[in-house]
Design brief:
Blueprint: E1 10-14, H1 19-29, E2 33-38, H2 64-70, E3 74-77, H3 83-95, E4 98-101, H4 105-111, H5 115-121, E5 126-131, H6 146-152, H7 156-159, H8 174-197, E6 202-206, H9 207-214, H10 216-225, E7 242-246, E8 252-256, H11 260-270, H12 274-278, H13 285-290, H14 292-303, H15 308-317, E9 322-325, H16 328-331, H17 335-339, E10 343-346, E11 354-357, H18 381-387, H19 392-400
Parallel strand pairs: 1-2, 1-4, 2-3, 4-5, 5-6
Antiparallel strand pairs: 7-8, 8-9, 10-11
Helix pairs in contact: 1-8, 6-9
């Protein structure tokens, strides 16, 4: 018996880049059978994304960003703009439980893949649509990537900047992957609702809305008080025990003691600065906030006297809340990441020992996660066609007409 929570759920994906495909990657990790519609001639454009570290892979036909968000899936190469190709897609959708797309609303409507059309075809279908700026309003059709809609426009970019410095760029797919996990959860809730009602429904999410939710703490303060929290300099954080500091060996540590009064005496002892505890300038959180610049400088000077590994032992001995600011090369060797099985191996036809990041949710009664490598473009077109009842002559005819690739 397959105990994965979404075993038996059939998902059709018509999506590109990251947010939509990452949604179905999570669903597939949880056991769903995902068929990815890719349009000729080349399919999902993320297949062609190349970044500098890829040089180490030589001439292998592999794009790690594509592999990450398309594991476990089957790929069918369909020209959905051709009548026969569209009919092929609709035949799949008539049998599907879930449809996921991150194409613009007007594109889906032109293709007859919007909620109204598909609900009439399959009333039990969960129609999950993800776009840049939402499903209403003047910008609902505006083109977007997560850096623009979720990071810049939401306020996150400005809030994360060092005052007076250029706004920081986000790393690839940060909000896309968060949105994918959120939308996968919403789809699961819609599937549960279908068990109660017998009816499918539309599920909607936007990158802009995702960014607003990620920035919700600051935005709620702004909404309630009319006073917008601004970016904070690391040289003058209101709480110097909630900051990053540079160590003697060039590494950084992140202190995260939001309840600074609770940790202040232990922190002074850890840094071997007991006089700070009796210093009236630093007697409580409010005093430390008023004198944050001088205290931050004193902490920085002290932490710069030792390397990170030495501080790690000291901070842990005093039960402080902290973490190393790790590079990606350090993260992939992190024993705790291995302990929670976040990096898993997948059989890959061209890349021995192919490893990738597992989606973070665990289920106590089932092993979930990547099971197979991402598919070649159109790798499963014939297989899926046969499952839908098409014969080999039908498949050949559709390929001849350009409906299938």
């Amino acid at each position: 018996m397959d105990r994965r929570p979404l075993s038996g759920i059939k998902v059709v994906e018509f999506a590109i880049w990251v947010a939509g495909p990452s949604t179905t990657a999570v669903l597939s990790d949880w056991g769903a059978d995902v068929i990815k519609i890719e349009e000729p001639p080349a399919g999902d454009p993320i297949r062609g994304v190349k970044t500098s570290p890829l040089a180490s892979l030589g001439n292998r036909r592999i794009a790690p960003p594509y592999e990450l968000d398309n594991r476990n899936k089957r790929s069918v190469a369909i020209n959905v703009r051709h009548p026969d190709g569209r009919d092929f897609a609709l035949r799949m959708l008539a049998r599907a439980d879930v449809f996921v797309s991150n194409f613009r609303l007007d594109s889906l409507e032109r293709l007859g893949l919007d909620y109204a059309h598909l609900a009439a075809l399959n009333p039990r279908l969960i129609h999950a649509s993800l776009n840049g700026y939402g499903h209403r309003g003047a910008d609902c059709l505006r083109q977007a990537f997560d850096q623009a809609a979720g990071w810049a426009r939401s306020g996150l970019m400005a809030a994360s900047a060092e005052p007076g410095e250029a706004p920081p760029a986000q790393r690839p797919g940060m909000i896309d992957h968060t949105a994918g996990l959120v939308l996968a959860g919403a789809i699961s809730a819609a599937l549960l609702a279908r068990e109660k009602t017998g009816h499918g429904q539309e599920v909607r999410l936007s990158l802009f809305g995702m960014g607003l939710w990620m920035n919700a703490a600051d935005l709620t303060i702004t909404l309630m008080t009319g006073d917008a929290p601004g970016p904070e300099s690391r040289h003058a954080r209101p709480n110097p025990l909630w900051n990053t500091y540079y160590c003697k060996d060039g590494a950084w540590v992140c202190l995260a003691m939001v309840q600074s009064d609770r940790y202040w005496q232990k922190f002074c002892a850890a840094l071997e600065r007991p006089s700070w505890f009796s210093d009236q300038r630093f007697k409580d959180a409010a005093s430390r906030s008023r004198n944050n610049r001088v205290l931050t400088s004193m902490i920085a000077d002290t932490i710069a006297t030792r390397g990170r590994e030495e501080w790690a032992q000291i901070f842990d001995r005093f039960s402080l809340i902290w973490a190393p600011v790790q590079t990606n090369l350090e993260v992939v060797q992190d024993a705790q990441a291995e302990a929670i099985n976040m990096f898993v191996s997948v059989d890959h036809p061209w890349l021995p020992n192919c490893r990738m990041v597992r989606s973070p949710v665990e289920f106590g009664q089932a092993e979930v996660g990547p099971r197979s490598a991402a598919p070649e473009f159109g790798q499963h077109t014939e297989e899926v066609a046969l499952e839908l009842g098409f014969g080999w002559e039908d498949i050949a005819a559709m390929k001849e007409k350009g409906a299938l690739a």
